[in-house]
Amino acid sequence: MNIINVYALTSVFVVSLISIIGVFTLSLNQKILNKSVFLLVSLAVGALFGDAIIQLIPEAFESVENPARVSLFIIIGETWCHILNRP
Asked: CB-based burial of residue 31 (10 Å sphere; 0-12 exposed, 13-18 middle, 19+ buried)?
């Protein structure tokens, strides 16, 4: 097995282990869990949104011939997210 694959699998295992430990720690105390859920969801949304803006959207514009189509799909996706998140 290539050493790069070993490093990649090890890093994924370590990050997953840290996440599982965090879940078990938060689940022990319901009061702390209720306070931290909003913060953790906000962090996850920010990470996904940042990844989309920094990497995925520019890559999508580079890989197609018609950038207007990419823009249309981005607008449709954002609109759909806002519709689904209404209270």
From this structure: exposed
What does the pLDDT read at residue 11?
94
Residues 37, 30 contacting (CB under 8 angstroms)? no
pLDDT in tens, 43-52: 888 888 888 8
Which backbone phi and psi does 2 adopt, to 5 degrees? -65, 145
Name the strand (E) or helix (H) holding 72.
Answer: helix 67-84
Distance in angstroms (rounded) separating the CA atoms of residues 27 and 48: 24
Q: What is the pTM for the complete model shown?
A: 0.51
Residue 62 belongs to what H/E stretch?
A: helix 57-63
Question: 44 is written with which tokens?
Answer: 């996850």
Look at residue 10 and tell me whether its pLDDT is greater than 90: yes
